[in-house]
Amino acid sequence: MNALAQFLRVRRGRIGPADVGLPIGPRPRRSPGLRREELAALAGVSVDYYTRIEQGRETAPSDSVLDALARALRLGDDEHAHLLGLADRVAGRTPRRRPAAPRP
User: CA geometry: angle at 78 spanning 72 and 82, to 5°?
Assistant: First the structure.
């Protein structure tokens, strides 16, 4: 499993259905967090495509897909930048530079 896949799996496990407005079923879940199907639906990508990314079989997801996943996972700016950097490394691209914070 590559670093991008591992990051997505961990983040998916840290956000629950109630955190994103999904109903909670009558029985407790076997594992914490969102199901792949739920995250894929929230991000607007197919379950198969998301599964390939999370399993490390898709190594070059587009920025629009990564942005949608970041929104669905409720990532902050730093986590979103980290996600993009991981995707760059997995795809063999030079990691993008983050813009410098504006000076007062």
Answer: 80
